Amino acid sequence: MRTTRRLLAAAAAAVTVAGLLAACGGGDSGTSTESATGKITYFTFSAAPDHLKELDALKAEFEKQNPGITVEVQTAAYADYFTKLQTSIAGGNAPDTFELNYENFVTYAKAGALMGLDDVAKADSDYKADRVYPKALQAFQLKGKQYGMPSTFSDVVLFYNSKLFDAAGVAYPTASWTWDDEKAAAEKLTDKAKGVYGDYQPVTFYEFYKALAQNGGSFLSEDGKKATFNDAKGLEAAQWLLGKPGTVQPTVAEIGGKADYDTALFKSGKLAMWHSGIWMFSSLADAKDLGYDIVVEPGKAQKASAVFFNATAVSAKTKKGTAAWKWARFLSTSDTTVQTRLASSWELPAVNDQTAFDSYLKQTPPANRQAVFDSLNAVALPPVIGDQQAQMQDLVTKALEKAASGQATAQQALDEAAAAVTALIK
Questions:
Q1: Which residues contact 423 (CB under 8 A, 6 or more apart)?
Q2: Alpha helix (H) ranges present in 91-131?
């Protein structure tokens, strides 16, 4: 997907548990295995518009390997996807299988909209659970039960322009860097007279929750009923982000609402370090002489990397549970899917098989693609509160923006946001 994932996730339509419960009848999801053949439907957001050709190839190969099963593909843009999905569920016309990201998965699983996969997986002799990346499997579990088959992942790393580092006589970032190292380098690399900035990290919910994890803090209380991100560790995390605009990175006013400003700045050779996702590799392909590489993002108390998982789920109302499971498993673990995704830069398959990525690791730039996988050693999944997720994310981002504009201190902004998020939970 070419669009920045964090912006897409923030713009996702709110999914209401109440609406889904009404449509699904509430309670735990069952396992429907009435039919192992016939036509199944698949609804996806990640294929269109860039990867429809690849999806058609996967569909053809799956049908070849599974005579008697056909797949009807349905697509929608991410901005419209969850509204359409919820409408179809409420109308009793849910697709047999559909794509979910981690944040929305929690809501659908709790609402009973998803078929439990444990029984049908155990009955499938071709399924090997150890082929799936363990943390991805865990991400799509609820109360120890599997409700989604992980299909892809992408993560955030620290991009850096080696030419700017060389020109400034600054050593390249390493995996052992801390926030202090990044700050010191960013200050040396910033040359506003030449329009060169040392760093860029958006002041948003997605960067804040990750920075909080890097500082050893917790976004929510252990029971999930209270926001705790306004404590001392949260304040440090907020100050880490808020200290960059106007010093080592442009201010919001300087950016002026320009879309993809950070991408353009990096591609033009005017940005030394950039916190962004691996989905940007393809967008940087045309910047032939840029000279960039990547490393795992620095932390403070510990490492913590933002990782975005997608999965294929099966509707609790399907009448073709076994056939639907086979398609979900194929999209998750088949060699065909893995190689197709890698060859087309269609995110990365969530498989626990390093040899599968040999060809990917040999591609340059960036040379240090191993950092993509090293970032998985310390995964920081976004906090999820259910049907108020989008509102919660917006509250935190606006609070940070308020502090960035000087309308409140960082502590005041966090206190206000924490109280509002706790109210949402209750």
A1: none
A2: 102-110, 118-122
**Encoding tokens for residue 123?**
């009955």
Write down all domains in the chain, each with its CATH number in brackets: 1-28 (no CATH), 29-151+309-362 (3.40.190.10), 155-307+367-424 (3.40.190.10)
- Neighbour tally for 3: CB within 10 Å: 14
CB-neighbour burial class of residue 259 (10 A; exposed 0-12, middle 13-18, buried 19+): exposed
Token pair listed for 218: 């917790």
Whether the bond between 365 and the residue before it is cis, its omega within 30 degrees of 0, is: yes
Dihedral pair phi/psi, residue 134, rounded to 5°: -55, -45
Preceding peptide of 250 cis, ω within 30°: no
What's CA 42's distance to the chain center, in Å? 21
Mean per-residue pLDDT, 298-309: 97
39: helix, coil or strand?
A: strand
Question: Which neighbouring-strand residues pair with 70?
Answer: 39
Structure tokens, 156:
């955030």
Question: pTM of this prediction?
Answer: 0.90
Q: What is the pLDDT of residues 228-258, one digit of tens each?
A: 999 999 999 999 999 999 999 999 889 988 8
Q: How confident is the model at residue 271 (pLDDT cuts 50, 70, 90)?
A: very high
Contact by Cβ (8 Å): 157, 232: no
Rounded CA separation 155/134 (Å): 16
Q: Is 61 exposed, middle or buried (0-12, 13-18, 19+ CB in 10 A)?
A: middle
Instruction: To the nearest 10°, report the CA torsion of 37, 43, 48, 52.
Output: 0
**Which tokens hold the place of 191?**
């040359």
